[in-house]
Amino acid sequence: MLAWVVYDISDNTCRKHVSDACKNYGLYRVQKSVFLGELNSNERDSLAIECEEEIDEDVDSVYIFPMDDQSFKKVKLLGQAFDKDLVSDEVLTTFF
Question: The pTM is what?
Answer without folding.
Answer: 0.84
